[in-house]
């Protein structure tokens, strides 16, 4: 028993255990960095800036890791990636026959978001710039620049269509966040509480970026270069935070 405990402790290292207690029970999956290193060491191909949200709750097919390819700049939330089919075991008793499964490759392109508890099955190829909804079950070829959801997953819209829809609700989304804080806390929100909605009203200066945007986590990292570049390449809609606080949405009818 003591020998087994020593081996567990030795694997992540005592320093790591002190910093990350979950490493005792999840030595290869307690954080994103260790999960990706573990996958790569066992044959999976994982691009740069890809993150698993809550990696200890993600299931990655350990018997078929070399069947799995995931591109760069992807975000996967407590997913299941299953590159085999073990249902053939029923054939032995039912038909007295062995028909083992060879597995099937799974490829996820660049800049994809795989939603909470989505399940990606063997023989699936997902293109670039794809969004998969929460708890979707995905199999087959998923074209680039599309949005999918459901069981089985079906195409909901193109990525451009979703983008245009979200642009239309940009201001109403910010107001919803503002009003939620007013309702819950009985006061106006702070700039920090508005998070990335700060893009709507912050002056484009290094001081504003350092103070309000730099430390916001985007896809698992702070001070993300693409976030910084976008901050300085765009202009705010409002001239100040105070103007945003006083903004009211007006509804007109034709």
Structure, briefly:
This protein has 254 residues and is α/β, with parallel strands linked by helices. It has helices at 2-10, 14-19, 32-41, 90-95, 159-168, 170-185, 191-194, 206-213, 225-233, 241-246, and strands at residues 45-46, 51-53, 59-60, 68-70, 75-77, 80-82, 106-108, 113-114, 119-121, 124-126, 131-132, 137-138, 141-142, 146-149, 154-158.
Helix content: 25-40%
Counting DSSP E segments of at least 2 residues, the number of strands comes to: 15
* Major sheet size, sense and barrel closure: 6 strands, mixed
Low-confidence stretches: none
Distance between the termini: 76 Å
Strand content: 15-25%
Q: SSE order in H/E notation? A: HHHEEEEEEHEEEEEEEEEHHHHHH
Radius of gyration: 23 Å
Number of helices: 10
Secondary-structure-derived class: alpha/beta
Spatial arrangement of strands, main beta sheet: 2-5-8-11-14-15
Mean pLDDT: 90
Shape: elongated
Folded structure, characterized:
The protein is of the alpha/beta class and 254 residues long. Strands 2-5-8-11-14-15 form a six-stranded mixed sheet. A five-stranded parallel sheet has the order 1-4-7-10-13, with helices on one face. The chain has a four-stranded parallel sheet with strand order 3-6-9-12, with no helix packed on it. The longest helix has 16 residues. The mean pLDDT is 90.
């Amino acid at each position: 028993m003591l020998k087994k405990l020593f081996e567990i402790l030795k694997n992540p290292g005592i320093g790591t255990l002190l910093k990350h207690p979950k490493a005792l029970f999840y030595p290869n999956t307690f954080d994103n960095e260790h999960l990706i290193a573990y996958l790569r060491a066992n044959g999976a191909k994982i691009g740069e800036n890809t993150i698993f949200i809550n990696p200890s709750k993600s299931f990655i097919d350990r018997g078929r890791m070399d069947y799995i390819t995931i591109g760069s700049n992807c975000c996967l939330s407590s997913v299941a990636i299953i590159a085999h089919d073990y249902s053939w075991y029923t054939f032995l008793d039912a038909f007295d026959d062995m028909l083992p499964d060879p597995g099937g490759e799974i490829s996820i392109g660049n800049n994809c978001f795989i939603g909470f508890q989505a399940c990606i099955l063997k023989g699936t190829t997902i293109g670039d710039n794809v969004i998969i909804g929460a708890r979707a079950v995905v199999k087959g070829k998923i074209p680039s620049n599309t949005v999918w959801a459901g069981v089985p997953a079906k195409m909901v819209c193109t990525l451009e269509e979703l983008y245009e829809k979200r642009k239309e609700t940009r201001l109403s989304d910010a107001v919803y966040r503002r009003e939620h804080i007013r309702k819950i806390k009985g006061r106006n929100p702070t700039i920090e509480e508005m998070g990335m909605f700060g893009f709507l009203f912050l002056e484009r200066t290094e001081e504003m970026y350092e103070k309000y945007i730099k430390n916001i986590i985007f896809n698992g990292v702070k001070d993300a270069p693409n976030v910084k570049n976008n901050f300085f390449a765009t202009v705010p809609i409002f001239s100040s935070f105070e103007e945003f606080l006083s903004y009211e949405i007006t509804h007109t009818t034709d």
